């Protein structure tokens, strides 16, 4: 079965675990496609037996094959299969070592795909609106953005499904297109409700957005944690903490009185807010915001019961003109 590594790019260390990702009929299907893309009727004519239009459609939805614009069927890259498997099928009985290697392989792929953009931004380059890049959005910006989006599809978060590094909610990814038709189409109001609840539970809003030549948005609104999120992992490894996702705000204490509850300290994913331990008989101290660590995600501000934290804009986004 080692030919599958060449057909779909499956990493070689998964050889003992092929059956966890592909059924025997799917392996037959991929083997038939090794020589080139085929129409569904040609596939059925070549393989016969149990190969049907329904099986081909199921293989497409599972990320085993892809459909070309001319209707022919071709093998899908294993990155697509892995995402579908992690999102909807679970990790089953893979050893922990194999899980970690698979996530490292996926992160390396993500880094390779974005390395040039990250290094350009670090060097002071300007982001192009046509490039899909992550940037933090405040809740009010999400609402304005959603006014420009015609369709919303709810997906599980692929980062948390793969990495499993926290216990925060997974059914939170709002995509603007529906690859392979497997997301749930929801209303704008429902999408906003999911985003607000995700924020309440401590997830940051990061828009992975680009704009096409007709001014239409492409991408998704992610509700991210700092433990599993691939953009945040990339940022740590490439020292791009304020670039990827793009930081556009800084938190600062507002004029409203702080009651010293410490909730902002607990909600900050980056340890940017500190507070001296309360001393007996004395009022709680005012938190201190380290602007060098602050990414401007806004979780501290949305969680403050006194509205004592504001968000000061420090950078414009090339996308603001499209949804402001």
From TrEMBL:
Residues 249-278, 285-314 form the 4Fe-4S ferredoxin-type domain. GO terms for molecular function: iron-sulfur cluster binding; metal ion binding. The keyword Iron-sulfur applies. InterPro entries: 4Fe4S_Fe-S-bd (IPR017896), 4Fe4S_Fe_S_CS (IPR017900). Keywords: Iron, Iron-sulfur, Metal-binding. It holds the Pfam family Fer4_7. This is 4Fe-4S ferredoxin-type domain-containing protein. It comes from Desulfosarcina alkanivorans.
